User: Fold this.
Amino acid sequence: MAFRLIPRDEGFFDLFNELSKKLIAAAALLKDMFTQPERLDEIAAQIKEVEHEADHITHEVSTRLDKSFITPLDREDIHNLTQELDNVVDLIDGTARRAQMFHLTESREPVRKLCDILCQSVRQLEKAVTSIKDPRTVAIATREVKRLEAEGDTVYHNAMGQLFAGRPDPLDVMKWKEIYDTVEETLDRCQTVAIVLESISLKNS
Assistant:
């Protein structure tokens, strides 16, 4: 019977799971920010804390990669998945930073819709990450992420049309375009994570 003299380090899966939960936490906070704009500074600080926690996990993955002889997935796949998950949290933090910088004291329906879609998307990513050894579950979850990205595109384009309609205030246009752009980019990045997960799942099925 074949056996491994040096066992594979399965701890990477726990770190992936932890990181995917940071996406859910950050997205939920962003949704809260645009539901309760009067709490902008408080929630932005909470998002920054989650972003720091995600960075710590990402660093731990990198350190573990350096020390591991045998990994449960290709090293490049581990690096790519970790980096793309962290990028989602970074973009959420970037949206919060912009909202603070612009001193937004109001919310708008399109951004609330986009944040709701984002929350759904990261929940699907968590489902795929925690079931990474189950190709069927990964396929279902990543397909839903792609559908949500397309739904987000529709909301984004409608929001931009509304933003430029009539005689809008140029400063408002600049502020809200930045916000819409960054949330839409975050949804795009979720789709990138989904593609990475699909690739890993297919390679290891």
